[in-house]
Amino acid sequence: MNDTAESNRLEGRVALVSGGARGVGLAIARTLAGQGAKVLIADAGGAINGDGADPTVAEAVAAELGDSALAFTDSIAEASAAQAAVALANEAFGGLDILVNNAAILRDGFIFKSDPADFDEVLKTNLAGAWYLTNAATPLMRQHAKDNRGGEPYQWGRVVNITSTAGFYGNYGQSSYASAKSGMLGLMRTTAMDLARAGITCNAVAPFAATRVTDTIVPANDEQTTYKERALKVSPDHVAMVVAWLCSPEGQSITGQLFGVRGREVFLFSQPRPIATLARDDADWDVAALSEAAAATFAPLYTDLKTDLEVFNTEPKV
């Protein structure tokens, strides 16, 4: 495909990218704008733990992208701010077709040492914020579907949740972050179901890339040191291209799916489904019978306790 066709692939679309001023979010915002979309950069500019706010961070990105972008600098961890962000995108650019839920903070700590207030803040930004934006954006998207925005049938509506392998593998000291990122999968699946009749898709992407999150990893052993060194080699631009693919016309038939991106590798992940069943017709289970049956049928299939850092600690394709 020639460069002109690629740059016009998302012509006419309007995107809202939360956490869009740095890291993966910034790469996504730049790529969507580069393919012709107008982009609202929703980013309060806070530190990786959510503290502080700096509106100039998002404003600088919007200035870089020119007429293709606008900054929104309130925290989407509040429902009213999420509603205001959607309203601004609609008023400034005439609609909203693409929502990328990317904003996230980190407040790590072992489960037996963590502060409940930190857990609340992580879930508020990483999961509730995504719900608030999806809740605010999808009525407008559904109206666009009724109006056949972009042509008939409507094929412009896209929601992409940026999750993490920590959400389904787990990682030491990341109970709050993993809980939120796991929740993004349930939100993705249900959003995909709720919006299917309107022709709006929803998928999730787990990135492996050099970001502020990667930079915060404090290696506990040589293996984790190697993982971090490898991860810091991977540009977030690869993640952004997969998001752009899901938002493209070619992504219309893809919904309810979980992808991973590590450099030039793109993974399609399975999703939890039963892999074995114990059943009996003669009586209810008791502990002894269940223990015996589980040892024979379930035990060989139990999932190990490897972290995502261990599972994906191989040289990336960059």
Protein architecture, described:
An 8-stranded mixed sheet has the order 3-2-1-4-5-6-7-8, with helices on both faces. It has helices spanning 3-7, 23-34, 55-65, 79-93, 116-146, 166-169, 175-195, 212-215, 222-231, 237-247, 287-297, 308-311; strands spanning 14-18, 38-42, 69-72, 98-101, 158-162, 201-208, 258-262, 265-268. The model has no long low-confidence stretch (mean pLDDT 94). It has a single domain (3-268), classed as 3-Layer(aba) Sandwich (Rossmann fold). The chain has 318 residues and is of the alpha/beta class. The two termini are 22 Å apart. Helix 3 links the parallel strand 2 (38-42) and strand 3.
Oligomer: single chain
* Tally of domains: 1
Radius of gyration from CA coordinates = 21 Å
Helix content: 40-55%
Spans of 5+ residues with little confidence (pLDDT < 50)? none
Residue fraction in strands: 5-15%
CATH architecture: 3-Layer(aba) Sandwich
